[in-house]
Amino acid sequence: MSTATAVTAGTWTIDPSHTEIGFTVRHLVSKVRGKFETFEGTIVSAPDITASTVSVSIDLASVNTGTADRDAHLRSGDFFNAEQNPKMTFVSTGIVEKAAGEFVVTGDLTIKDVTKSVELATEFLGEGGDPWGGTRVGLEASTSISRKEFGIDFNIPVEGADKLMIGDKITINIVAEAVLQA
């Protein structure tokens, strides 16, 4: 039973200065966090929110974990191979409203020419005016992926063959604002 979240129908552009696309991965006995600094995306909202679409393109060379050497390694062929595979993309294939303001956005995530279907648990944070006369929406979404399924399988054994330095599970967290286009 849908409670139909109301969003103004139209084309929305993701505002990079008010959006963060981040990730978390297990490293030895802790977790490393990072984000992507350069990306663009569009949300096309329909009167029936479940008929809306989302597309996002992320510049893999813009990865930032706060450590220059690690970031350079992530851009290398061991991980993203950003020179040959400069973009990670997401294109929605369906949206299901679970409860008022809570959705599952299904879509195709492509990294290193490997495309897999993923589901993002998404929360609609609201819609409202901004000080510049525009209209904005806020969303928060998350998912987990296996980096190995996308051909990102570099690792280093630790304490014998039963333990690895880097976890396979990557948690992706997105907090986004988008601006309605005139």
Give a description of the structure.
This protein is mainly beta and 182 residues long. It has one domain: Lipid/polyisoprenoid-binding, YceI-like (Lipocalin), CATH 2.40.128.110. 4% of the residues lie in helices and 58% in strands. The strands form 2 sheets. It has an 8-stranded antiparallel β-barrel with strand order 1-4-5-7-8-9-10-13. It has a two-stranded antiparallel ribbon with strand order 11-12. The protein is elongated, with a radius of gyration of 18 Å. The mean pLDDT is 94.
Entry summary:
Residues 11-179 form the Lipid/polyisoprenoid-binding YceI-like domain. With 182 residues, this protein is mainly beta.
Radius of gyration over all CA atoms, rounded: 18 Å
Helix content: under 10%
Helix-strand category: mainly beta
**Strand elements, count:** 13
CATH class bucket: Mainly Beta
Number of domains: 1
CATH superfamily: Lipid/polyisoprenoid-binding, YceI-like
- Average pLDDT, all residues: 94
| Overall spatial form | elongated
Any idea what the CATH architecture is?
Beta Barrel
Distance between the termini: 33 Å
Percent of residues in β-strands: over 45%
Uncertain stretches of 5 or more adjacent residues: none
Strand order of the largest sheet: 1-4-5-7-8-9-10-13
The string of secondary-structure elements, in order, is EEEEEEHEEEEEEE
| CATH fold type | Lipocalin
> Biggest sheet, in brief?
8 strands, antiparallel, barrel
Q: Number of helix segments?
A: 1
Family: Belongs to the UPF0312 family.
Protein name: YceI family protein
Domain Lipid/polyisoprenoid-binding YceI-like: 11-179
Pfam family, one: YceI
